[in-house]
Amino acid sequence: MSDQNQLIDDADDQANDQQLEFHPTATSTGERLDVYLATELPDYSRNFVQQLIADGQVLVDGEARKRTFKVTAGQVVQVTIPETQSHDIQPQEIPLDIVYEDVDIAVIDKPAGMVVHPAAGHPDGTLVNGLLARYPEIAINGTNRPGIVHRLDKDTSGLIVVARTPQGQRLLLEQWADGSVEKGYKALVHGVVEPNEATIDAPIGRDPIDRQRMAVIGSGKPAVTHFDVEERFDAHTYLDVNIETGRTHQIRVHLAFIGHPVVADPLYARGGLPTLGLERQFLHAWQLGLRLSDGRRIVLESPLPSELEAILADLRRGSMG
Question: Following DSSP, what letter does each residue of 53-101 receive, concatenated?
């Protein structure tokens, strides 16, 4: 399957209800169902989780339960998150940092904490809501991802390109399909990475045990990540990362797979690893190179956000372990 088809398939997946499955462990035994799920679904509000339970969208061992139900290790908790319909999306005047724009595309420097497209639990306040206000023409194909051909996770900051026209969408999809887009990231990871440069070539798919996570599995889709060491510290390493493919959570999954998860990653850096005071993962999309409709090639850059620069400064002073 080509990356172009993969992008289209990913977009189509968003048009379906999302099915998630969780398996409480001994540490969760006795927790209320709504409290347990609020922890497992950090991107959704407690009120939204409670509404899902009230609507019968949460089953414990196949039965609907009240939010006060106490979970027990060994149970299976199934959650259905309904799709957000495209006609529900409203334009909103949201400040956007526009790095580049022409008649066909626009490149935005997305802050950490901003969700890219509406989904259940995030019906508004997203990048797409802001884009619809600035570029009304981006309602392409009537989807809830107008103009969006790639993603950045909610707590990943940096450059994201969107299509303003169907021609712009074709232009971008062609470049994703032929691998000509440059996608550069900066990441701070746990541990001291030994090789100065390396490639991780390992397939990624949905984690069969924890459906909220992705994992390196044999049945997954091909995924290739390259990295160079920028700087080493006592217990951390600063990396320059480039990806050939664009699988969900690819960088986060690959770096965790080799034993060096991204600092403050809530899904893949568990187990008491220090967050260094960060409330978002240390992952920033700093560079984007692509071809314009007139044939010219541009390479755009985004400076590292101040909260991430501050972490590096502290590490250089030796004030963090």
Answer: HHTT-EEETTEE--TTPBP-TT--EEEEEPPPPGGG---------EEEE
Q: Where residue 120 falls among pLDDT bands split at 50, 70, 90?
A: low
DSSP state of 276: T
CB 167 within 8 A of CB 122: no
Pairwise CA distance, residues 106 & 171, whole Å: 12
Active site residues: 153
Q: Which of 213, 236, 216 is nearest to 224 (CA)?
A: 216
User: If DSSP codes are grouped into helix, strand and coil, which group holds residue 307?
Assistant: helix
Residues 238, 284: Cα–Cα separation, whole Å = 12
299, 287 contact by CB (below 8 A):
yes
Q: Rounded to whole angstroms, how far apart are CA atoms 255 and 77?
A: 28
Helix (H) / strand (E) element for 297: namely strand 297-301
Domains assigned to the chain: 1-12+87-179 (3.30.2350.10), 20-79 (3.10.290.10), 181-321 (3.30.2350.10)
3-state secondary structure of 125: coil
Residues 65-111: pLDDT tens digits? 999 999 999 999 998 877 554 446 789 999 999 999 999 999 999 99
Within 8 A by CB and 6+ apart from 72, the residues are: 24, 29, 30
- For residue 43, what pLDDT is reported? 61
* C-alpha dist (Å) from residue 23 to 19, 54, 230: 14, 20, 38
Comparing CA positions, the residue from 37, 42, 101 lying closest to residue 67 is 37
Task: Give the sheet arrangement for strand 63-64, strand by strand.
Answer: 18-22, 77-81, 58-60, 63-64
